[in-house]
Design brief:
The complex is a heterodimer.
Chain A: E1 3-5, H1 9-14, H2 16-28, E2 33-34, H3 44-48, H4 52-65, E3 71-74, H5 77-86, H6 97-107, E4 108-110, H7 111-118, H8 123-128, E5 137-141, H9 155-161, E6 165-167, H10 182-185, H11 187-203, E7 208-211, H12 214-227, E8 232-234, H13 236-244
Parallel strand pairs in A: 1-2, 1-3, 3-4, 5-6, 5-7, 7-8
Chain B: H1 14-22, H2 24-70, H3 72-85, E1 89-93, H4 96-109, E2 114-117, H5 121-125, H6 128-134, E3 138-141, H7 144-151, H8 168-179, H9 187-204, E4 207-210, E5 214-216, E6 221-226, H10 230-236, E7 240-246, E8 250-251, H11 258-269, E9 276-280, E10 294-300, H12 304-309, H13 323-327, H14 329-334, H15 345-355, H16 363-367, H17 380-384, H18 391-404, H19 410-423, H20 426-443, E11 445-447, E12 450-453, E13 469-472, H21 477-490
Parallel strand pairs in B: 1-10, 2-3, 2-4, 4-7, 5-8, 7-10
Antiparallel strand pairs in B: 5-6, 6-9, 11-12, 12-13
Helix pairs in contact in B: 2-11, 8-9, 15-18
Classes of the chains: A alpha/beta, B alpha/beta.
Chain lengths: 253, 491
């Protein structure tokens, strides 16, 4: 099985450690990933902001770039859901790329989903394999777009079973307020939602938040930093990599 | 009509959104109530049907309503024929003015002076109370929430819980002021005070008005779901009753009603069923103890056939349960009045521009350019919708129309065009990223392996209005991966 890492523009720009963690955890599970160099952006910013035809051009690039792979894995719940849920409808029924879009949708997975659904990784077996003995407590906010691929709320239980010390985040199902360009168009509303999320995080007394999308992570980490709140925001892949001991846990000030 | 739900057009959402965000009371009331209702919805469906059963029920309702919409012409004909056979008088109105006009004629013919009205979103839509009041007909909202809003000269901000933005204390004050009652915040006492006031009105009223939740074509019957019994009193007392109903409320018949009754109250308030489910089938018969001598049903279009003919027909499945409002993070923060329309929240954001397209059918979004953008596209609305309306999809459609008609900011369009150009050229894309990283490393404050930008330029300025922008300073992923792969290859 040839597996490609769909890196996403946002993770490449803001969160390289997330991508490193994806590679290392997958290798730990016996899967070597490839990183197609031509990939850029899946087109979500264009699609979400009223440019479906332009998004379709980028969707065509995605289809071509990942054509030769058997599976495509991404740490972004949001970009994953766009490929899975919205790509097909970008193409007219007569467009030959419509079938190709369906094929790409069928083989694209969010990182934790890939481990669980495609690789059938048993998290308790991961836990038994050792790794970091003492883990700090994490709490987890799932990206809203995981709803569309029926994975909303799946991340924390998987991490817990794999030996992460998880604490439940109150009102997890409410959006963190990121929403792509919504975060700047309706900055006040976005901020208010983010601050509410941070208050819930604070109530768990965890200093590390696992967020299953780079956008949500950047929004919440940026808000926390502006507010002077000490909070480390990491991806599920980083949480697992730290748990498995394949990525050194950074000491956070 | 109240400016809160019928503002000057085009409507600028931003001032009210900002005011709402600054209003901690509003957020407390709305946030608490919506969270509670949303939680109750999830619990009652989980307990009664399980996850899969809930999903199957939503599929059944979605398909049933869609089928009805796809055959609306037939159903309308059948309904009119059967309803007339029961003795109801059927009227058709293409718009708000016509609908109100028909009702005024009926009222005038009977010399009506006092009208008791039960809750109806459609009558809000067409501004009926204003028209009647101006015509000198005392028109009283009998739903407790709507009654309080009416005496406060306020407007509903939620489809099901109209006074969600107010608290008991303000209701108590209004009762003292308008009804001269003693001050109490006890909900039972408040209800009793309202009841006493209403009973007198019911006795006096010579006209009853209501909406309808469903129309049954086979039976020619209107179905009205309420919790307070006020509908039954308003239909039971006065000699004449008028039902206002949108044509999209049609179902084939009683055979299709059950899934909707199961879904409506559970979705809206977490109750298994509304307290009252009333069926209006013609005027009082000789064997009936009470009921109006005349029943009029006004079938209102007001933009519906336009939606029916468009690719947005699915929107007409909406049964006005309010579940999407309760689930929506944005609604929870800004409340209903921020949407500047009778219908607020996610469904309002997609429905309002469509209902307000008018003639020519192009105005809609130009009048409400902010509505489709006021969403984080989180999908909670679709998850909560009992008839599975893909609201996020329609928000995307509306955003595309905004862009096509140059109704969204050009600065955004320029930034997106640049992004599109870069994203098609991987070399250039990576160069731009590298430049951004270097920029961040030089200008940012370094903290925990991250360069933090406090004030970003250009399109990112909105971001740093309230948040820092953190860019990791460690080795970029691609360079790391090249090294990592080489090491693995050699080991």
């Amino acid at each position: 099985m040839r597996v490609a890492l769909f890196t996403t523009c946002l993770a490449e720009a803001l969160a390289p450690r997330t991508l490193k963690a994806c590679v290392l955890v997958l290798e730990h599970c016996g899967v070597s990933v490839e990183v197609p160099t031509a990939q850029t952006c899946c087109g979500q910013p264009l699609l979400s902001n009223g440019l479906p035809l332009q998004a379709r051009e980028l969707a065509r690039r995605m289809i071509a770039i990942f054509a030769e792979f058997d599976a495509v894995v991404t740490p972004s719940g949001s970009c994953c859901s766009i490929v899975r849920e919205r790509f097909v409808d970008l193409f007219e029924p007569t467009d030959p790329d419509r079938a190709a879009a369906s094929a790409l949708a069928a083989k694209t997975f969010e990182f934790v989903e890939f481990l669980q659904v495609k690789l059938h990784v048993d998290p308790t077996a991961l836990a038994a394999r050792g790794g970091a003995a003492v883990m700090p407590a994490f709490t987890c906010h799932d990206a809203c777009h995981l709803r569309g691929i029926h994975r909303h709320g799946s991340t924390a239980p998987f991490l817990a079973a794999s030996g992460c010390n998880m604490r439940e985040l109150p009102d997890m199902t409410q959006c963190c307020g990121f929403g792509g360009m919504f975060s700047t168009q309706f900055a006040e509303v976005s901020t208010a939602l983010g601050l509410e999320k941070l208050a819930h995080v604070a109530s768990t007394e965890c200093s590390t938040l696992v967020a299953s999308d780079t956008g949500c992570a950047a929004h919440l980490a940026g808000l926390a930093h502006r507010e002077g709140v000490t909070l480390r925001v990491i991806s599920p892949a980083e949480a697992l990599a730290e748990r498995l001991g394949v990525l050194a846990r950074e000491d956070f000030p | 009509m109240n400016e809160l739900i019928a503002p000057n057009l085009p409507y600028d959402m931003m001032p009210r959104a900002r005011a709402a965000i600054a209003d901690m009371h509003l957020q407390q009331f709305v946030g608490r109530a919506t969270h509670l209702k949303d939680e109750q919805r999830k619990n009652v469906f989980g307990d009664d049907f399980g996850h899969d059963g809930y999903d199957a029920l939503r599929d059944l309702a979605a398909n049933t309503k869609q089928h009805a919409l796809d055959h609306l012409d037939e159903l309308l004909e059948r309904f009119i024929e059967r309803a007339q056979a029961t003795g109801s008088i059927i009227h058709a109105a293409t718009d708000a003015r016509e609908a109100c006009g028909i009702a005024l004629d009926i009222a005038a013919r009977h010399g009506a002076k006092t009208c008791v009205k039960s809750k109806s979103m459609l009558t809000e839509e067409i501004g009926l109370v204003d028209v009647f009041t101006k015509a000198g007909i005392e028109t009283v909202e009998t739903d407790l929430g709507e009654f309080i809003l009416q005496i406060d000269n306020d407007a509903p901000s939620h489809i099901v819980t109209p006074m969600i933005h107010k608290d008991r204390a303000s209701a108590a004050r209004s009762f003292v002021r308008v009804l001269g009652s003693r001050y109490t915040e006890d909900p039972t006492e408040l209800t009793m005070i309202a009841r006493e006031h209403m009973r007198e009105l019911y006795r006096r009223a010579d006209l009853g008005i209501s909406g309808a939740n469903f129309l049954l074509a086979d039976e020619g019957t209107a179905v009205i779901c309420t919790n307070e019994g006020n509908f039954d009193l308003s239909v039971g007392g006065p000699p004449v009753h008028i039902v206002f109903v949108g044509i999209e409320k049609l179902l084939r018949g009683a055979r299709d009603l059950a899934p909707f009754l199961k879904l409506l109250a559970r979705s809206g308030t977490g109750q298994p069923l509304t307290v009252y489910t009333s069926f209006v089938k013609g005027p009082r018969r000789s064997t009936d103890a009470s009921g109006p001598k005349e029943v009029h049903i006004i079938l209102v279009d007001a933009g519906r056939t336009g939606i029916l003919a468009s690719e947005k027909r699915e929107l007409l499945r909406c049964i006005r349960c309010g579940a999407c409002l309760n689930a929506c993070p944005v609604y929870r923060k800004v409340g209903g009045h921020t949407y500047g329309s009778v219908y607020s929240g996610p469904i309002g954001a997609v429905l309002t521009p469509e209902l307000n397209r008018g003639s020519p059918r192009e105005e809609g979004l130009a009048n409400y350019p902010d509505l489709p953008r006021a969403s984080s596209l989180c999908g909670a609305c679709l998850e909560a919708c009992p008839v599975k309306i893909d609201i996020p999809k329609f928000l995307l459609h509306a955003r595309a129309e905004l862009r096509d008609r140059s109704l969204s900011p050009t600065s955004e369009s320029r930034a997106l065009a640049l992004w599109r150009t870069l994203a098609q050229r991987p070399m250039l894309f990576r160069m731009a990223m590298r430049a951004a990283r270097m920029h961040a490393r030089m200008l940012g404050t370094h903290d925990g392996g991250i360069a933090w930008i406090r004030k970003a330029p250009g399109p990112a300025a909105g971001w740093t209005s309230s948040r820092d922008l953190g860019i990791a300073t460690e080795q970029p992923f691609r360079a790391w991966f090249t090294e990592h792969s080489a090491q693995r290859g050699s080991s």
